[in-house]
Amino acid sequence: MNECLVCKGKLREQQVTRMQEYGGHWVLIENLPALVCQQCGETYYTPQAHDRVIDLITGGAEPVGVETVAVLDASA
Ligand SMILES: [Zn+2]
């Protein structure tokens, strides 16, 4: 895949940070390879990157850091 499905922009491989929920908790995965649209910013994950995320969050990987995340309510 080398073309964005949203805007047909050019995709480039980049390392991104992904937020993923697992078991009621959110985790941040840093330095995940992904294809990012250079035009609209849409991010596409390869099946390998997806598997890597599952491995990390189910394999009990030691966190490299802990962040506090602000929760906002869009319905208010
Ligand atoms: Zn795009």
What structural keywords apply?
76 residues, binds zinc ion, single chain, Ubiquitin-like (UB roll), alpha+beta, 3 strands, 1 helix
Name the beta content range: 35-45%
**Ligand types:** zinc ion
Can you identify the CATH class?
Alpha Beta
Tell me, briefly, the overall form. Answer: globular
Mean pLDDT: 94
Ranges where pLDDT stays below 50 over 5 or more residues in a row are none
Number of DSSP helices? 1
Ends distance: 39 Å
Strands in their spatial order, largest beta sheet: 1-2-3
**In percent, how helical is the residue content?**
10-25%
Corresponding CATH architecture: Roll
Counting helices, strands and paired strands, the structural category is alpha+beta
Radius of gyration from CA coordinates? 15 Å
Largest sheet: 3 strands, antiparallel
H/E order of the elements? EEEH
Count of beta strands: 3
Task: Classify the fold: give the CATH topology.
Answer: Ubiquitin-like (UB roll)
